[in-house]
Amino acid sequence: MYCMLLTSKFISDIIISPVLYQCSEEIRGEILFVLYKVSILQSTSVEGDGSDILIPFCPKLLYLLGDVLMKTQNDDVRSNCIALLTMLARRHLLREACEYDGTYMFSSGGVNSQEFEDGTKGPLVNLFAEAIKGPLLSSESDVQIGALDFLFHYLSSEGTSDSQIRVMVEENIADYVFEIVRLSGYKDPAVKMCLQVLDLLSIAEDAFKLRLVVGFSTLISVLRYVAEVPFHPVQCETLKLIYECVSKCPGTVSTSQLEELVLVLTRMLRKYSDGEMGMLPETFIIACSIVAALIRSPSCNGAALDLSKSIEEAMKHATSACLYASERNINQLLQCLYLLKEAFEYSHDGSSTDSSKLELRSCILDICRTHLLPWLVTGIDEMEEEIVLGLLETFHSILLLQSSTSFAETLISSCWFSFSYGCLGLFTGDRMKYRIYLLLSSLMDSLLGNDSGKSIRDAALHLPSDPGDLLFLLGQRSPNSLDLLSCQSSVLLIMYTSSLYNERLADEKLVLASLEQYILLNSSDFQYPTTDNLKVTRLVNLYSLLRGLGQMGYQFHYSREAEEIVFHLINNDEWDLLSARIHTVSLKWLFQQESITNSLCHQMLKFCRSCNLLGTDITLGNNFQTVNDRTLAELVSTEDNYGARIFVCLLEQLFKNEGQEHDTISVLNHMATMVSICPTASDQLCLRGIATAIRTWCYSSNPFSKTSFMSILVLVYNILSSVHPETLSADQSWGTVTMKMMDYTISPKNMDNSSHEFLFVIGILSLILHLSISTALEEASKQILFNTSLISAVNTIVCAVSSAGPVLVDHDEGTSTAKPLIFVLLLDYFAIKRYASSQHLHAILPGFVDWQNFLVSTNPAEPLSFIGIRCHDLCRLLHFGSPVIKLIASYSLLELFNRISDQINSKHEELKCTVGYLRSIMSILEGLVFYSDLRVATNCALCLSILIGWEKVAKETNLIGKRSWCRLIMEEMTVSLATPALASQSFINSQRPAIHVAIAVLKLHKIPLWVRSVFTHSCISGILHNLAATDLSSEILVLFRELLKSEFLNSEQIATINAMLQECRKCIYSHNVQEGLPNDPIKKVHTTPYDLGEICSYLIDLISSETYLDKDTWGFHTSSKKRLLEEIEAFFSTLTVDDDS
Fold first, then answer.
1. What are the recorded Gene Ontology BP terms (predicted)?
2. Of 15, 474, 803, 992, which residue has the fewest beta carbons closer than 10 angstroms?
3. What is the domain range of residue 1005?
4. pLDDT, tens digit, 9 for 90 and up, residues 963-987
């Protein structure tokens, strides 16, 4: 008790006596220190009521301390004074002092300074503001830190009002604090204390705003420091102050400051996402808020600055940090979503072709697609409603901004309808229901266009949350209820759209039953034309899908009356196929209904009119797109619907009607496109009478243009290049079509042998001859073979070119001279094949073709009376022609030589030509055995082999004689095969032409003597040493067999070949090598009327496929496994015969 009295007496004396003012600075400092110590040691009042001992002295003491602090220049005095004031603040005595001083402190707003009766000066807050400036400017850091500590406790005291804080700001305390930060080098502890004080001063928003703008650059420097320190005490305060400035004074942020802020914040988020640095949730939220505010600032949207890359990186790290954190924070995720929305909106500002913003937009969509959407769908059961709503709102905002349907398709691919009603089952509040239906409406706007989701937006509050209740609404009838009508329109739209994407919101039987009930209840409305054709179209499409699904898997009952109403809507043009998307199941079911085929013809005509593809690329779609050529082609290519019949009937009607040429061209082009997409469609079109329909054009009196004729040619070509021959065998209409094509282009008055029409027709005629080899189109082929105008045209073209001689070298495939020649050569090849294959033709005209006439004629200048080119003309083309001409001429010459050989052998004839003529041909052929195109070289080698074999019937026993070229060919072959470095499958394959020549020479009755100098024992041994079992081909085996027969092989070589053949046979059986026969050539279907190169390539592929030269799967250079095995057995048989003899 006595100590308390002494303490009280000491404090009273200090306050009352003037000693504190009269003494020196040193004594004053000591007095304040003692007062500080005494106050700490004795804090309870003498009355024993628990109150603080300093309360009675506070009003005087506070003014005294403030006055001393303001007047002193001594740092020790300042330190002790500040320590005492700070202690008073911690003990809440400043608050109590304020209460004592309340009668005058807050008069006139509490901020004016005035003199009172006791001599004290103005409000304490003004006194403290003035007094603390000296310590804040002190050169002693401890004094500054103490002053800042006092300010922090004073400003954070419960009794400190907002008006008092405003006074502090108006007295420029914030400016002093910013200066301390700047002078401290942005290091602790000054930074920590200053930012805490600034955070408290920011409560005075309006007054602090101007100071904040001035000190903003200082805050950025502070952020650089605190951003690198994990969990820095004032990280959050620094970001808060920056956010205040950026959000409330956006115009003050310069471009360089904005760029630096984004980079620093992005680095923070990256470190947090990567786990390098921890971060409080509040810090993360404010960091995201700053980035979002910066995105909205005028500086960020200027043309001179593009922060798309940095924003993209910030978005990625913020999303990763939220989604994959160990503990989910709702506010963090919501702020991240807000940042994502702002960034997406930013990506749509300015130029739509800005590559960096396009990349940012793509990145955000990718985040939604690969992170947010899967996270939402898989974790919905454990999520809070606020998070789900935030994600849905984000997706909705993207749908509203996104001009393309890509994100809408992403949502739909995630079974969005089912997910949406799953959400409504988990969260039953109106907020969730409204958000779900709003998003669905925007989804349909994006997917279907034309503001399709409006009905759902209008009825969102009235729609139920359960799909079963949706069906119940659909089956109700209330003409006077606008809400019900709106809800029913929404239900139809939801069911229609979900069915497009194979989502089943309810059992198909229940949906069909409700839909039929809706149709029957509203049947009276369907009796009259409606203005809402789109609604009717969706109704029909949904109904046809449900019926189609019933046919596919399981049958269920349906209402015939409802079906009749639907057919009535279709036949009365209430249904527009092109106005809405339709599922392929729906389309197929409609095309299976015979009663609506006329309406479907009309719809197909509308389709062809709306997207005429003449001269454009084919656009392909998928199951959920509007009607396109692919979906129609797939329908036409199958026989379980009326698709082919509909198009054939439509084309026939157009051919009969006048003034519809444009429509006819459109339909022809689309049919050609469909065949190019699905080649099997050609079979169905032929079975449904496409030739008869085209024959209608032949007999039509309507004039037609060059364009329509070319469109017909394209369709005919596409069909004939894709159809199976047996499909054409019974159709005689093609003969009429063939005659019409020839009359139009090859008649003397119309013929222009360089025109596209002429060349196109020649290509089609070649196709017809090719198909007739398989007993199809026989009548059409006869009309071609015996057409005098065509024969004359062929002879004219060949004569004109043959007379050119060496000049022909300058005519490549693109010249007006070479193009007709190429097509005539193709026609010649197929004509030769047709002559040889037709027993019926020989029966009608026995001896019509004497193949030896192609070798020599009594009058060489006399043209042939049938389609054909003589040997000497083909040889000229082989020698002087371009690569393509050489190739086709070589095929024709080989086919011609085969026919001559067959005739000579079957009739035992002698050659009618001279040996000199044969040797001149041989000279041409020998020079092409080493030609770069292996096909040309092989064909010429085979021709040369045939010629060598004619020695027996040429009245010349020494046709080969000492011909240096044959010897050179064989020497080159043996040296190449015996050279180790050159032994490979591809190289051996390149020697096949020379092998054919060697085989022919070895088969001669009298083998030239020089052959033994070519096939020496060392040479043969070298070849055998280089060959592996997998290198063997049927040609090599024939060569070995002929060498064996001619006794060129010794016993050791025979043993080597024997072992090699055993291994080869073992490989064939053990690996089950497939037949080496060529696959069907790829159909090169023609889609435009002007690319003749495709026709030429396709016809050459047909020719090449008949003499397949490529190696098979295991690398055996042979046309088939069977042939290789046969040659192996033939060698063994020959070896056995030789052994027996």
1. meiotic DNA double-strand break formation
2. 803
3. 965-1140
4. 678 889 999 999 888 887 655 667 7
